[in-house]
């Protein structure tokens, strides 16, 4: 009987330490995103700035499309994904002095802010919604890559080039 009890205690300790490590990992990532960069603002500060500044540009159709695009993301992470993608879309629209958020802004921001490991699911969702993503294939290379970590608020020149190529 005591061996079974010791086994459960050891098993519980392993599970508890594993859960603490996983939680600590995600907390540390969030902490790093809150660290100010050279300009004095963090990645999350810039994200919040662009979302607040572009809030009047978002119409109901754009909001509904964003909600639909992030629907495959698990509930636990959906708000974070929505804010990250919304921040990137907002930045693109603001830089282009857009009067409203259009499908083109949403597509470019959505592709760039989505991690490469999720592109298969993203393409599946876009196909379900009958949205043609082939004009944006070059942007998939700029997408958030864990191996080559960069700010989703960089790459303005590449996005402008891709837009120019897309409109021609």
Topology:
Blueprint: H1 2-34, H2 43-54, H3 60-69, H4 75-95, H5 103-113, H6 119-128, H7 156-167
Helix pairs in contact: 2-4, 4-5
Q: How many H/I helical runs?
A: 7
- The helicity comes to 55-70%
SSE pattern, N- to C-terminal: HHHHHHH
Largest sheet: none
How many structural units, i.e. domains?
Answer: 2
Uncertain residue segments: none
Radius of gyration: 20 Å
In whole angstroms, the N-to-C terminal distance is: 76 Å
Shape: elongated
Q: What is the number of beta strands?
A: 0
Strand residue content:
under 5%
Mean pLDDT: 84
- Class by alpha and beta content: mainly alpha
Provide an overview of this structure.
Pfam families: DUF2621 (PF11084). The chain crosses the membrane at residues 6-28. Keywords: Membrane, Transmembrane, Transmembrane helix. This is Protein of uncharacterized function (DUF2621). InterPro entries: YneK (IPR020203). With 168 residues, the chain is mainly alpha-helical. It has 2 domains: 1-34; 38-167. 65% of the residues lie in helices and 0% in strands. It has 7 helices and no strands. It has helices at 2-34, 43-54, 60-69, 75-95, 103-113, 119-128, 156-167. Helix 2 (43-54) crosses helix 4 and helix 4 (75-95) packs across helix 5 (103-113). The model has no long low-confidence stretch (mean pLDDT 84).
Short description:
With 168 residues, the chain is an all-alpha fold. It has seven helices and no strands. Helix 4 (75-95) crosses helix 5.
